[in-house]
Amino acid sequence: MHRNSPAIAGTRQLHPLRTWQIASVSLIVIASLSAAASTCLTWQAYTSAHRNDLLANVVDWVAFAAQLGTTVCFLRWLWLARLNSELLSAEAPRKERGWVIGGWVCPIVNFWYPHVVITDIGRASNPSVTSEHSAHRGTPGGTTINWWWGAFLTSQLATVVEGRITGPPLAIVVVDTVYATFLGIAGVLLVAIIRRISSWQSAQIHRRKF
To answer: Could you tell me if residue 1 is inside a domain?
Structure first.
């Protein structure tokens, strides 16, 4: 028996995700590409002892704006997806609704709460999840979420390490490369997660119209 049923949600309306999905995905791509471009410029400066400061500043500002925009749009998408997931599943999420945002900014718990929140949203949204999956806390496609979270944490750790390095320039360049690489990996995986969950929930919205 599928847990996702119109009878569970009653007549409450699901929130469309397409606008925030497109905005989030677009900005994630821009943020990932700008981080990669910044790393390339860093390597160029290291190998040739020449740095195009104007271009580097432009890339850095684009990266900053894209990351800021990604934060706003993704959290809005995540909030709406969580609201929808509460209507699509009879199973209570493991974290209260406030942790959808608070889990990212609260120290210590921000190492795992966002992962839990998104995993629960994915499980509640997935029409193929049955009561057996629910009982075992397993989610088809959950491996993608695990890899995304691991890559994201690695990129953030690289940022912390880079800020503390006082050694040779090569070490800074290498750590910056690690950051950009894992940020790009996390970006690709997050895009896949957003599209998958949005697709599941959009199908539910379409189904309710007929």
So the answer is: no
